[in-house]
Amino acid sequence: MYDIDRETALFAARRRLLGGRMVAVAWAAFWLFFSIAGALFGATGAAGGIVFLAVVFLLAATILLLFRHPAAGAILLVIEGFASLLVALLPGLLALGAPTRIFLFLVLALPPLVAGWLVVDARRRLAAAPDESP
Fold first, then answer.
1. What is the distance of C-alpha 127 from the center of its chain?
2. Rounded to whole angstroms, how far apart are CA atoms 101 and 104?
3. Measured between alpha carbons, how far is 121 from 115 in angstroms, rounded to an integer?
4. Which tops the pLDDT comparison, 106 or 91?
5. Average pLDDT, whole number, for the chain?
6. Distance CA 98, CA 88 (A)
7. Please, which residues have CB within 8 angstroms of residue 15's CB and are 6 or more apart in sequence?
């Protein structure tokens, strides 16, 4: 028997999971490009190159974890979102203007927080989907 409510709930949950993964991959691709460009053309030296390489490995591990174990990947994304918020905004909070703070929040912290929330919500919706048994 075909149950429209169950199919609708599953479809919505799968869309959220896909959306969370797409946001995470786009955010990782942005930072991958930024890290490679900074390592190649920045005046950071060997220590800066190692930091950029660590960022690349962290992003790759996050995306891999998100696809293999969505709950753990979502938790890691939320942690990365809060960590990037702290690293970017707290040290120079008083020196930055409001537009710069808003931009940093939108670029650094919001994408992983949104992606993590979408994946967590998708997992919750998949778990709460009605059974197909009568």
1. 22
2. 5
3. 10
4. 106
5. 81
6. 13
7. 122
Burial class (CB in 10 A: 0-12, 13-18, 19+), 118: buried
Contacts of 27 (CB under 8 A, 6+ apart): 111, 112, 115
Given a cut of 90, whether residue 31 has pLDDT beyond it is no
CA 11-15-16 angle, to 5 degrees, is 120
Residue 40: count other Cβ atoms within 10 Å of its Cβ. Answer: 9
Nearest to 120 by CA among 16, 7, 6, 12: 16
What is the distance between the alpha carbons of residues 74 and 52, in angstroms, rounded to a whole number? 23
